[in-house]
Every structure is written in C-alpha cells, then in structure tokens.
User: What shape does this take?
Amino acid sequence: MPYMPQLDGLRALAVLAVLYTHYLPESQWLLGIYWGEGGVRLFFVLSGFLITTLLRAARARVENASRTRGQALGHFYARRALRLVPAYYAVLAVTAALGIPPVRRTLLWHLAYLSNFYFVRHGGWEGPVSHLWSLAVEEQFYLLWSLVVILAAARLLPAAIAVAIAIGPLFRLLGVLSGWPPIVGWVMMPGSLDALGLGALLAWWAGTAAPSRRGNRIFASAAIAGLVAWIALEKLATRGVWAHVREVLSPTALAVFFVWLVACAAGGFRGPAGRFLEWRPVVFLGRISYGVYLIHNFSVPLLGLVFPRVALAPPLPQAAIALPTTVGLAALSWRFLERPFNRLKSRFA
Assistant: This one.
C-alpha cells in the first residue's frame, strides 16, 4: 500500500483532539463539546480503512494462489503484533513496576486486550488506564474482521460491511431500550462498528469504483450534514428522549464526516489544508500518535513521582508540562522500540 502522508496528518489531529479534552477541564472545551470523541472516532475510521485495504490485498494473494488463507491470517496477525504489542506491553510494564494506580490491580485485563470488558464490569472509568478501552476495541476488531475478509466469499464482503455499519447504532439503541449503562455502548466493540465499518466501506469503494463528480458532491454533502448533525446533537440533545437519540446516532453522524475526510486525505488535499497535513512536524506527530495516545494519560502520574507538585498544579500549567513530556516519551518509544519492531514486519510482507 502506498504511503499517504496526509493520513499521518489526520492522526496528528485526532490525537491532539484527545489530548485537548483529556488535559483540560470541560469548562475550557471549545463550544463545550467533548472533542476527544472525535479523535477516537477518526482513529476508528482510519483503522477500518487501512486494515481493510491491507486485508483485501492479502485476500488477493490467496485468490491468485500465492498464499494460503492460513498464511494470510498468520502474516496479518504477526504484522499487527509487531506494530502494536511491544509499546503497549512496555508501557504497562513500566507503569505497573512504578506502582501507577490502578495499573497493577487491572493489569491482566489490559494484557489480554479486554480493558473495555473491565470498564463495563466495573461500571465506570479507572483514571490513567481509562483510554485503553479503544485499543482493546481495535484489537478485537482486527481479530474479527480479518476472519471475515479473508475467509468469507468475495460476494458477501459488501453485505458484511453493511451489517457492520448497521450494528453500531443498533447496538447502542439496544442499550438504550434495555437500560444498559451508557458506558456499554461507548466502549464495547459492537458500539464502534459503524465507524470501523464506514472506514472499511471506503476501502472497498476505493478498490472497486471510480469516483464521479456527482458522487463526490453527494459524498461531500453527506459529510457536511454528518458534521452539522453531530454538533447539533452534542449541543442540543442533552435531556430526555433527545439524549437517547444523541447516544444512538451521534457517533454515526460524526463517522460519516470522517469517512469523507479520510477519503480526501488519502487522495491528497490541495492548497493550505494539504500543506498543513504534510507539514513535517504534523506528519511526525501523526507517525508517533500511537505512542502519544498510549502514554498521555500516564504522563501526569509519572511526573508526579519525580515532581509531586505537578499532580497538584492547575489544569493549564499541568497540561503545559504533560504535553511535551508525552510527545517526548512517544518520540523515544518510536525511535528505540516501535520503529525497530516495525522494520521486522518486512519478514511477513
């Protein structure tokens, strides 16, 4: 798959949105909206798009008899493990060894990529480890979706993508009707399948259909409508039945906008937007965004071990210290841990 630098630019924007709302109190969020949700949903759409693109290429090798289905799945899992597992386990090992609460108490759940199940069982978030739910969702998606794309009949793939997209809002609707705690629809993998599935739809569409001017206009209009609907739901649908409408439909509306954004970045934005997304500092931040996301919630507790006053500082000074610490640690992780393991992926090309 050719390298698309603007997708790294989108990763940078996604992780900055997460840092913005995790490091600052709600009173300082723009329009009072939780932009961190946008960052996570953008990561999901990107994952659905890129993983499905890779899996379709692997399936093509199976179909031309250059690889068995078992080999295709084994190579895919090996490449994903080399990319994600070393940094993830290293961060868990360090934070557990240093006694960052509640890492030791919840460690087995995270090691098994079942963080989201733990939060549902616990009934809420757990401080510095709270963000690990999304990494668990992605791993669970990789395991499930690779089986679908590699093993299912080719004619069934479009239907499988449509089902995945539909499962997201339907799962959240089931949660509303059943009275489940909202965290269930938020952190369990089926509740994120619309964003992941829409990314997969983009990968399928990009590989089978040539874009037309009319289609592009409809696509852009749907994207703008999705963004407007998300903002309206986040701002206005806060009580009564409208709060349930928001819970069910808001993530899907936002994902529709992000599909268009990813499609445009994959093709290459022109003008100022393209130059910004390809600006070297932005691309680098996107490249290390996995480490940034993985580390960011641990930065303040880690700093607090050395500088106890950091944990007691007001939000803005704390963020001003935590942000460069997070980026610096992520850069070191990329240079000395992630990139060396990443190079080993060529053995499973």
Q: What stands out?
A: Residues 35-63 form the longest helix (29 residues).
